[in-house]
Here is the input.
Amino acid sequence: MNGKTRSSEMPDRPEFFDAGIRFECTGCGECCTGAPGTVYINRREASAIARRLGLDLKAFLETYAYPFKNGYSLREKENYDCIFFQDGRCSIYDVRPTQCRTYPFWPETLRSEAAWRHTCRACEGIGRGRLYSKKEILAEVQKVLDAGEPVDD
Here is the structure.
């Protein structure tokens, strides 16, 4: 052998979240405000929000969303706050989209320890509350990935 280890023989690299991560939403609104962004919603989520608002799906989409990839994104206010961030809180919290429910456990925030540290600076709830196990964290990531179903008008 040439002294190199084949990749199939390499042990799994421990992830920075192997021991879990503490998180508790404080309702601070930092993830709902600030820089422009995209809050993806699929058909199921759009329908749930529309029902909560007493609208049919078409009226909801025309008023509160815009086409984005294979679904829609929630509109933003002129200052880039989420359209549903009102009086310092989420006005649709009980039916908020998967993207909002799973924060901060998104693929892009967990891709590296550096990305995670950046997220920690923006979210006061990280490091507080209950301990999410690695298995629970990966399940949250999978929810984000699974939410990408198409929205049919």
About this structure: Residues 23-146 form one domain. Residues 23 and 152 are 34 Å apart (CA to CA).
